[in-house]
Protein backbone atom coordinates (compact mmCIF):
# COMPACT_ATOMS: atom_id res chain seq x y z
CA UNK A 1 0.00 0.00 0.00
CA UNK A 2 1.49 3.38 -0.92
CA UNK A 3 1.60 6.28 1.45
CA UNK A 4 -1.40 8.08 -0.04
CA UNK A 5 -3.62 5.05 0.14
CA UNK A 6 -2.59 4.59 3.74
CA UNK A 7 -3.48 8.20 4.54
CA UNK A 8 -6.85 7.76 2.81
CA UNK A 9 -7.49 4.96 5.19
CA UNK A 10 -6.88 6.74 8.48
CA UNK A 11 -9.68 7.33 10.95
CA UNK A 12 -9.87 8.44 14.55
CA UNK A 13 -12.80 7.91 16.89
CA UNK A 14 -12.37 10.24 19.85
CA UNK A 15 -14.31 11.25 22.92
CA UNK A 16 -15.65 7.72 23.37
CA UNK A 17 -16.16 5.56 26.41
CA UNK A 18 -14.50 2.26 25.56
CA UNK A 19 -15.47 -1.19 26.74
CA UNK A 20 -12.35 -2.78 25.26
CA UNK A 21 -13.04 -6.26 26.71
CA UNK A 22 -9.30 -6.47 27.36
CA UNK A 23 -8.91 -8.78 30.32
CA UNK A 24 -5.86 -6.98 31.70
CA UNK A 25 -7.93 -3.80 32.18
CA UNK A 26 -10.49 -5.25 34.60
CA UNK A 27 -14.24 -5.85 34.12
CA UNK A 28 -15.20 -4.95 30.52
CA UNK A 29 -11.77 -3.32 30.09
CA UNK A 30 -13.26 0.15 30.47
CA UNK A 31 -11.47 3.33 29.41
CA UNK A 32 -13.62 6.37 30.24
CA UNK A 33 -12.25 9.01 27.89
CA UNK A 34 -10.94 6.93 25.05
CA UNK A 35 -9.85 7.09 21.46
CA UNK A 36 -9.43 4.49 18.74
CA UNK A 37 -7.07 5.18 15.84
CA UNK A 38 -7.31 3.07 12.69
CA UNK A 39 -4.91 2.76 9.76
CA UNK A 40 -5.57 0.53 6.76
CA UNK A 41 -8.50 -1.20 8.45
CA UNK A 42 -6.58 -2.11 11.60
CA UNK A 43 -6.60 -0.66 15.09
CA UNK A 44 -3.28 1.06 15.76
CA UNK A 45 -4.33 2.58 19.10
CA UNK A 46 -7.18 1.93 21.52
CA UNK A 47 -6.75 3.64 24.86
CA UNK A 48 -6.96 6.88 26.81
CA UNK A 49 -7.33 9.91 24.55
CA UNK A 50 -4.81 11.78 26.69
CA UNK A 51 -2.15 9.20 25.83
CA UNK A 52 -2.83 9.15 22.09
CA UNK A 53 0.55 9.36 20.30
CA UNK A 54 0.81 12.71 18.50
CA UNK A 55 1.38 11.13 15.08
CA UNK A 56 -2.07 9.49 15.38
CA UNK A 57 -3.91 12.58 16.57
CA UNK A 58 -4.84 13.66 13.05
CA UNK A 59 -6.59 11.49 10.47
CA UNK A 60 -8.56 11.87 7.25
CA UNK A 61 -11.66 11.20 9.20
CA UNK A 62 -12.08 12.27 12.83
CA UNK A 63 -15.30 11.17 14.52
CA UNK A 64 -16.37 12.85 17.75
CA UNK A 65 -18.29 10.12 19.60
CA UNK A 66 -19.76 12.64 22.08
CA UNK A 67 -19.22 10.30 24.99
CA UNK A 68 -20.98 7.32 23.37
CA UNK A 69 -19.92 3.80 24.36
CA UNK A 70 -17.81 1.77 21.96
CA UNK A 71 -17.40 -2.01 22.12
CA UNK A 72 -15.80 -4.51 19.78
CA UNK A 73 -18.26 -5.39 16.99
CA UNK A 74 -20.41 -8.34 18.05
CA UNK A 75 -19.74 -11.93 16.99
CA UNK A 76 -22.39 -14.63 16.57
CA UNK A 77 -20.32 -17.80 16.99
CA UNK A 78 -23.04 -20.45 16.41
CA UNK A 79 -25.68 -20.20 13.66
CA UNK A 80 -27.46 -22.32 11.09
CA UNK A 81 -28.20 -19.14 9.12
CA UNK A 82 -28.19 -20.80 5.69
CA UNK A 83 -31.24 -23.03 5.19
CA UNK A 84 -34.36 -23.35 3.06
CA UNK A 85 -37.91 -22.76 4.23
CA UNK A 86 -39.07 -22.25 7.78
CA UNK A 87 -40.99 -24.16 10.42
CA UNK A 88 -43.60 -21.57 11.38
CA UNK A 89 -46.44 -23.97 10.51
CA UNK A 90 -44.92 -26.54 12.83
CA UNK A 91 -44.66 -23.95 15.58
CA UNK A 92 -48.35 -23.22 15.06
CA UNK A 93 -49.29 -26.93 15.17
CA UNK A 94 -47.43 -27.35 18.44
CA UNK A 95 -49.42 -24.49 19.94
CA UNK A 96 -52.53 -26.39 18.90
CA UNK A 97 -51.35 -29.47 20.79
CA UNK A 98 -49.36 -31.54 18.27
CA UNK A 99 -46.26 -33.20 19.70
CA UNK A 100 -42.79 -32.99 18.19
CA UNK A 101 -43.02 -36.72 17.36
CA UNK A 102 -46.34 -36.43 15.55
CA UNK A 103 -44.93 -33.58 13.49
CA UNK A 104 -41.78 -35.55 12.67
CA UNK A 105 -43.88 -38.57 11.62
CA UNK A 106 -45.90 -36.31 9.33
CA UNK A 107 -42.68 -35.29 7.54
CA UNK A 108 -41.97 -32.21 9.64
CA UNK A 109 -39.03 -31.47 11.89
CA UNK A 110 -35.45 -31.39 10.71
CA UNK A 111 -36.29 -33.59 7.68
CA UNK A 112 -38.57 -30.90 6.30
CA UNK A 113 -35.75 -28.34 6.49
CA UNK A 114 -33.43 -30.82 4.77
CA UNK A 115 -35.97 -31.16 1.93
CA UNK A 116 -36.47 -27.40 1.66
CA UNK A 117 -32.70 -26.82 1.66
CA UNK A 118 -32.02 -29.47 -0.97
CA UNK A 119 -34.62 -27.85 -3.23
CA UNK A 120 -32.78 -24.51 -3.40
CA UNK A 121 -29.82 -23.38 -5.52
CA UNK A 122 -26.83 -21.60 -3.99
CA UNK A 123 -28.30 -18.27 -5.11
CA UNK A 124 -31.67 -19.09 -3.57
CA UNK A 125 -30.04 -20.16 -0.31
CA UNK A 126 -28.13 -16.88 -0.24
CA UNK A 127 -31.32 -14.90 -0.90
CA UNK A 128 -33.09 -16.75 1.92
CA UNK A 129 -30.23 -16.12 4.35
CA UNK A 130 -29.65 -12.42 3.62
CA UNK A 131 -32.60 -11.02 5.63
CA UNK A 132 -31.46 -13.05 8.64
CA UNK A 133 -27.88 -11.87 8.20
CA UNK A 134 -29.01 -8.26 7.81
CA UNK A 135 -30.99 -8.47 11.05
CA UNK A 136 -27.82 -9.53 12.87
CA UNK A 137 -25.67 -6.85 11.23
CA UNK A 138 -28.12 -4.08 12.15
CA UNK A 139 -27.32 -4.79 15.80
CA UNK A 140 -23.57 -4.31 15.44
CA UNK A 141 -22.53 -7.84 14.42
CA UNK A 142 -19.46 -8.12 12.17
CA UNK A 143 -18.60 -11.82 12.37
CA UNK A 144 -21.03 -14.72 11.90
CA UNK A 145 -20.33 -18.42 12.07
CA UNK A 146 -22.48 -20.42 9.63
CA UNK A 147 -22.92 -24.21 9.63
CA UNK A 148 -23.92 -26.64 6.95
CA UNK A 149 -25.98 -29.63 8.13
CA UNK A 150 -29.33 -29.36 6.37
CA UNK A 151 -28.02 -30.97 3.17
CA UNK A 152 -27.08 -34.43 4.47
CA UNK A 153 -25.67 -35.41 1.09
CA UNK A 154 -22.35 -34.26 -0.33
CA UNK A 155 -23.70 -31.91 -3.00
CA UNK A 156 -26.13 -30.18 -0.69
CA UNK A 157 -23.63 -29.81 2.15
CA UNK A 158 -21.18 -28.17 -0.27
CA UNK A 159 -23.96 -26.01 -1.64
CA UNK A 160 -24.74 -24.68 1.85
CA UNK A 161 -21.09 -23.85 2.46
CA UNK A 162 -20.76 -22.10 -0.89
CA UNK A 163 -23.81 -20.02 0.02
CA UNK A 164 -22.20 -19.17 3.37
CA UNK A 165 -18.99 -18.04 1.68
CA UNK A 166 -21.03 -16.01 -0.82
CA UNK A 167 -22.58 -13.99 2.04
CA UNK A 168 -19.15 -12.54 2.78
CA UNK A 169 -18.95 -11.17 -0.76
CA UNK A 170 -22.37 -9.52 -0.53
CA UNK A 171 -22.18 -7.84 2.87
CA UNK A 172 -19.51 -6.21 5.04
CA UNK A 173 -19.12 -9.22 7.34
CA UNK A 174 -16.64 -11.95 8.22
CA UNK A 175 -18.12 -15.42 7.76
CA UNK A 176 -16.61 -18.44 9.50
CA UNK A 177 -17.91 -21.82 8.30
CA UNK A 178 -18.45 -25.15 10.04
CA UNK A 179 -19.01 -28.45 8.27
CA UNK A 180 -21.94 -30.15 10.04
CA UNK A 181 -22.85 -33.13 7.86
CA UNK A 182 -22.99 -35.10 11.13
CA UNK A 183 -26.11 -33.16 12.17
CA UNK A 184 -28.73 -35.84 11.56
CA UNK A 185 -29.02 -39.16 9.77
CA UNK A 186 -30.89 -38.71 6.47
CA UNK A 187 -33.89 -41.07 5.99
CA UNK A 188 -32.04 -43.19 3.41
CA UNK A 189 -29.40 -44.03 6.05
CA UNK A 190 -31.80 -44.59 8.94
CA UNK A 191 -30.16 -46.92 11.46
CA UNK A 192 -26.90 -46.89 9.50
CA UNK A 193 -24.89 -44.03 10.96
CA UNK A 194 -21.57 -45.75 10.25
CA UNK A 195 -22.41 -46.05 6.54
CA UNK A 196 -23.54 -42.42 6.44
CA UNK A 197 -20.22 -41.35 7.96
CA UNK A 198 -18.26 -43.49 5.46
CA UNK A 199 -20.29 -42.57 2.37
CA UNK A 200 -21.15 -38.93 3.01
CA UNK A 201 -19.64 -37.23 6.07
CA UNK A 202 -15.95 -38.09 5.52
CA UNK A 203 -15.75 -37.90 1.71
CA UNK A 204 -17.85 -34.73 1.76
CA UNK A 205 -15.42 -33.23 4.26
CA UNK A 206 -12.46 -33.91 1.94
CA UNK A 207 -14.26 -32.31 -0.99
CA UNK A 208 -15.43 -29.29 0.96
CA UNK A 209 -11.94 -28.81 2.42
CA UNK A 210 -10.34 -29.07 -1.03
CA UNK A 211 -12.62 -26.25 -2.18
CA UNK A 212 -11.62 -24.11 0.81
CA UNK A 213 -15.13 -24.17 2.20
CA UNK A 214 -14.47 -25.39 5.73
CA UNK A 215 -13.04 -23.53 8.73
CA UNK A 216 -14.04 -26.12 11.36
CA UNK A 217 -15.85 -29.45 11.73
CA UNK A 218 -18.97 -29.75 13.90
CA UNK A 219 -21.37 -32.53 14.88
CA UNK A 220 -24.51 -33.21 16.90
CA UNK A 221 -23.68 -35.70 19.64
CA UNK A 222 -26.98 -36.92 21.01
CA UNK A 223 -29.13 -40.04 21.32
CA UNK A 224 -31.19 -38.87 18.32
CA UNK A 225 -28.07 -38.06 16.30
CA UNK A 226 -24.46 -39.33 16.64
CA UNK A 227 -22.74 -41.16 19.50
CA UNK A 228 -19.38 -40.08 20.94
CA UNK A 229 -17.72 -43.05 19.18
CA UNK A 230 -19.22 -42.02 15.86
CA UNK A 231 -18.20 -38.39 16.40
CA UNK A 232 -14.66 -39.54 17.21
CA UNK A 233 -14.42 -40.98 13.68
CA UNK A 234 -15.53 -37.66 12.20
CA UNK A 235 -13.04 -35.79 14.41
CA UNK A 236 -10.25 -38.14 13.33
CA UNK A 237 -11.07 -37.14 9.75
CA UNK A 238 -10.87 -33.46 10.69
CA UNK A 239 -7.59 -33.96 12.50
CA UNK A 240 -6.10 -35.76 9.51
CA UNK A 241 -6.54 -32.64 7.38
CA UNK A 242 -5.66 -30.19 10.13
CA UNK A 243 -9.11 -28.72 10.79
CA UNK A 244 -10.29 -27.71 14.27
CA UNK A 245 -13.43 -29.28 15.71
CA UNK A 246 -16.42 -28.26 17.83
CA UNK A 247 -19.52 -30.10 18.98
CA UNK A 248 -23.22 -29.76 19.82
CA UNK A 249 -23.01 -31.61 23.13
CA UNK A 250 -25.10 -32.36 26.19
CA UNK A 251 -28.15 -30.52 24.82
CA UNK A 252 -30.80 -33.14 25.66
CA UNK A 253 -28.81 -35.67 27.69
CA UNK A 254 -25.30 -36.28 28.99
CA UNK A 255 -23.35 -38.58 26.65
CA UNK A 256 -19.92 -37.17 27.51
CA UNK A 257 -19.69 -35.29 24.21
CA UNK A 258 -18.01 -32.27 25.77
CA UNK A 259 -15.27 -34.45 27.22
CA UNK A 260 -14.75 -36.08 23.83
CA UNK A 261 -14.57 -32.66 22.15
CA UNK A 262 -12.06 -31.46 24.75
CA UNK A 263 -9.91 -34.53 24.12
CA UNK A 264 -9.61 -33.33 20.50
CA UNK A 265 -8.73 -29.80 21.66
CA UNK A 266 -12.07 -28.53 20.34
CA UNK A 267 -12.60 -24.81 19.87
CA UNK A 268 -15.98 -25.10 21.61
CA UNK A 269 -18.68 -27.38 22.92
CA UNK A 270 -22.14 -25.90 22.53
CA UNK A 271 -25.55 -26.08 24.31
CA UNK A 272 -24.35 -28.03 27.41
CA UNK A 273 -27.55 -28.00 29.49
CA UNK A 274 -26.72 -31.53 30.74
CA UNK A 275 -22.94 -31.00 31.18
CA UNK A 276 -21.38 -32.39 34.38
CA UNK A 277 -18.41 -31.14 36.42
CA UNK A 278 -16.05 -33.63 34.76
CA UNK A 279 -16.93 -32.32 31.32
CA UNK A 280 -16.57 -28.70 32.44
CA UNK A 281 -13.13 -29.42 33.90
CA UNK A 282 -11.99 -31.21 30.74
CA UNK A 283 -13.13 -28.23 28.66
CA UNK A 284 -11.31 -25.73 30.89
CA UNK A 285 -8.12 -27.76 30.68
CA UNK A 286 -8.29 -28.00 26.88
CA UNK A 287 -9.25 -24.35 26.42
CA UNK A 288 -12.55 -25.44 24.87
CA UNK A 289 -15.10 -22.60 25.10
CA UNK A 290 -18.62 -23.31 26.43
CA UNK A 291 -21.09 -21.77 23.97
CA UNK A 292 -24.49 -21.30 25.64
CA UNK A 293 -27.56 -20.97 23.42
CA UNK A 294 -30.51 -19.46 25.31
CA UNK A 295 -32.66 -19.18 22.16
CA UNK A 296 -32.92 -22.97 21.90
CA UNK A 297 -33.47 -23.31 25.66
CA UNK A 298 -36.31 -20.78 25.41
CA UNK A 299 -37.92 -22.17 22.26
CA UNK A 300 -37.87 -25.77 23.54
CA UNK A 301 -39.12 -24.55 26.93
CA UNK A 302 -36.25 -26.52 28.40
CA UNK A 303 -36.11 -26.55 32.19
CA UNK A 304 -32.62 -28.00 32.69
CA UNK A 305 -30.33 -24.96 33.03
CA UNK A 306 -26.75 -25.16 31.78
CA UNK A 307 -24.42 -25.54 34.81
CA UNK A 308 -23.13 -21.97 34.81
CA UNK A 309 -21.71 -22.11 38.33
CA UNK A 310 -19.88 -25.35 37.50
CA UNK A 311 -18.37 -23.69 34.43
CA UNK A 312 -17.26 -20.69 36.51
CA UNK A 313 -15.70 -22.91 39.16
CA UNK A 314 -13.86 -24.93 36.54
CA UNK A 315 -12.65 -21.75 34.82
CA UNK A 316 -14.27 -22.69 31.51
CA UNK A 317 -14.63 -19.78 29.10
CA UNK A 318 -18.23 -18.89 28.26
CA UNK A 319 -19.62 -17.50 24.99
CA UNK A 320 -23.26 -17.04 23.94
CA UNK A 321 -24.82 -17.20 20.47
CA UNK A 322 -28.16 -17.21 18.66
CA UNK A 323 -28.08 -20.81 17.31
CA UNK A 324 -30.26 -19.24 14.56
CA UNK A 325 -32.06 -22.26 13.05
CA UNK A 326 -35.60 -22.87 11.80
CA UNK A 327 -36.49 -25.57 14.31
CA UNK A 328 -35.29 -24.80 17.81
CA UNK A 329 -34.06 -21.20 17.70
CA UNK A 330 -35.55 -18.90 15.06
CA UNK A 331 -33.56 -16.05 16.59
CA UNK A 332 -31.65 -13.32 14.75
CA UNK A 333 -30.81 -10.92 17.58
CA UNK A 334 -27.61 -11.02 19.61
CA UNK A 335 -28.94 -8.24 21.85
CA UNK A 336 -31.91 -10.41 22.77
CA UNK A 337 -29.55 -13.37 23.14
CA UNK A 338 -27.59 -11.39 25.74
CA UNK A 339 -30.81 -10.46 27.54
CA UNK A 340 -31.90 -14.11 27.59
CA UNK A 341 -28.45 -15.17 28.83
CA UNK A 342 -28.83 -12.76 31.73
CA UNK A 343 -32.49 -13.43 32.54
CA UNK A 344 -32.65 -17.20 31.91
CA UNK A 345 -29.07 -18.27 32.70
CA UNK A 346 -28.16 -15.50 35.20
CA UNK A 347 -24.96 -14.62 33.35
CA UNK A 348 -23.40 -11.38 34.56
CA UNK A 349 -23.06 -8.25 32.40
CA UNK A 350 -19.39 -9.04 31.93
CA UNK A 351 -20.14 -12.64 30.87
CA UNK A 352 -22.88 -11.57 28.44
CA UNK A 353 -20.80 -8.91 26.72
CA UNK A 354 -17.59 -10.97 26.67
CA UNK A 355 -19.74 -13.84 25.40
CA UNK A 356 -20.59 -12.03 22.15
CA UNK A 357 -17.15 -10.45 21.67
CA UNK A 358 -13.92 -11.78 23.18
CA UNK A 359 -15.12 -15.28 24.08
CA UNK A 360 -17.06 -15.67 20.82
CA UNK A 361 -13.85 -14.81 18.95
CA UNK A 362 -12.00 -17.37 21.04
CA UNK A 363 -14.68 -19.96 20.24
CA UNK A 364 -14.00 -19.38 16.54
CA UNK A 365 -10.21 -19.40 16.88
CA UNK A 366 -9.97 -15.77 15.68
CA UNK A 367 -9.16 -13.93 18.92
CA UNK A 368 -5.90 -12.68 17.36
CA UNK A 369 -7.98 -10.93 14.69
CA UNK A 370 -11.07 -9.53 16.43
CA UNK A 371 -13.14 -9.61 19.64
CA UNK A 372 -11.41 -6.87 21.70
CA UNK A 373 -10.45 -3.23 21.13
CA UNK A 374 -6.72 -3.66 20.89
CA UNK A 375 -3.92 -2.41 18.65
CA UNK A 376 -3.11 -4.90 15.90
CA UNK A 377 -6.63 -6.25 15.48
CA UNK A 378 -9.11 -5.67 12.68
CA UNK A 379 -11.05 -2.43 13.26
CA UNK A 380 -14.39 -4.11 13.94
CA UNK A 381 -16.24 -1.68 16.20
CA UNK A 382 -19.73 -0.95 17.46
CA UNK A 383 -20.78 2.47 18.74
CA UNK A 384 -23.86 2.65 20.96
CA UNK A 385 -26.37 5.30 22.07
CA UNK A 386 -26.38 4.21 25.71
CA UNK A 387 -25.45 5.71 29.06
CA UNK A 388 -24.04 2.48 30.51
CA UNK A 389 -23.08 -0.97 29.15
CA UNK A 390 -25.85 -2.66 31.17
CA UNK A 391 -28.40 -1.13 28.78
CA UNK A 392 -27.13 -3.50 26.09
CA UNK A 393 -28.39 -6.52 28.02
CA UNK A 394 -31.35 -4.92 29.81
CA UNK A 395 -33.63 -3.71 27.05
CA UNK A 396 -35.83 -6.08 25.07
CA UNK A 397 -36.44 -5.09 21.47
CA UNK A 398 -34.69 -1.71 21.34
CA UNK A 399 -31.65 -1.37 19.11
CA UNK A 400 -29.33 1.39 20.37
CA UNK A 401 -26.62 0.93 17.70
CA UNK A 402 -25.24 4.26 16.50
CA UNK A 403 -22.82 2.88 13.94
CA UNK A 404 -20.87 -0.20 13.10
CA UNK A 405 -17.36 -0.33 11.70
CA UNK A 406 -16.02 -3.32 9.78
CA UNK A 407 -12.31 -3.48 8.91
CA UNK A 408 -12.16 0.28 9.44
CA UNK A 409 -15.11 1.03 7.18
CA UNK A 410 -18.02 2.96 8.71
CA UNK A 411 -21.39 1.36 8.06
CA UNK A 412 -24.42 3.48 8.77
CA UNK A 413 -27.34 1.78 10.48
N1 LIG B 1 -29.53 -28.87 17.88
C1 LIG B 1 -30.70 -28.27 17.71
O1 LIG B 1 -31.41 -27.89 18.60
C2 LIG B 1 -30.91 -28.08 16.28
N2 LIG B 1 -29.79 -28.73 15.72
C3 LIG B 1 -29.01 -29.14 16.68
O2 LIG B 1 -27.95 -29.68 16.48
C4 LIG B 1 -32.20 -28.62 15.75
C5 LIG B 1 -32.30 -28.25 14.33
C6 LIG B 1 -33.68 -28.38 13.77
O3 LIG B 1 -34.64 -28.80 14.44
O4 LIG B 1 -33.80 -28.00 12.58
FE1 LIG C 1 -26.93 -25.50 16.61
From TrEMBL:
Amino acids binding 4-imidazolone-5-propanoate: 87, 150, 183, 251, 328
Positions bound to Fe(3+): 78, 80, 248, 323
One GO cellular component term: cytoplasm
Primary location class: cytoplasm
Transmembrane parts of this sequence: none
Cofactor annotation comment: Binds 1 zinc or iron ion per subunit.
Binding-site positions, N-formimidoyl-L-glutamate: 150, 325, 327
Record keywords: Cytoplasm, Histidine metabolism, Hydrolase, Iron, Metal-binding, Plasmid, Zinc
Catalytic activity, EC: 3.5.2.7
Any GO BP annotation: L-histidine catabolic process to glutamate and formate
Cofactor(s) listed in the protein's UniProt record: Zn(2+); Fe(3+)
Compartment(s) of residence: Cytoplasm
HAMAP family: HutI
Family: Belongs to the metallo-dependent hydrolases superfamily. HutI family.
Protein name (record): Imidazolonepropionase
Amino acid sequence: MNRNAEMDDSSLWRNARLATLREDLGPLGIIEKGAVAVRGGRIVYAGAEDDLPSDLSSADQVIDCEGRWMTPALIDCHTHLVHGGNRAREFQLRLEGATYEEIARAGGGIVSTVKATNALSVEELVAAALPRLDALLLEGVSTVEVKSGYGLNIDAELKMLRAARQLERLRPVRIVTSYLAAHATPPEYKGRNADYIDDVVLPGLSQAHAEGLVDAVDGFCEGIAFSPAEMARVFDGARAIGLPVKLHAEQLSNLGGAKLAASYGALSADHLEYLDADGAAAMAKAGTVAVLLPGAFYTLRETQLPPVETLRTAGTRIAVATDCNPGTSPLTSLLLTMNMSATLFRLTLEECLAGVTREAARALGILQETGTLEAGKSADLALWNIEAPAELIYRIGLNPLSERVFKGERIAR
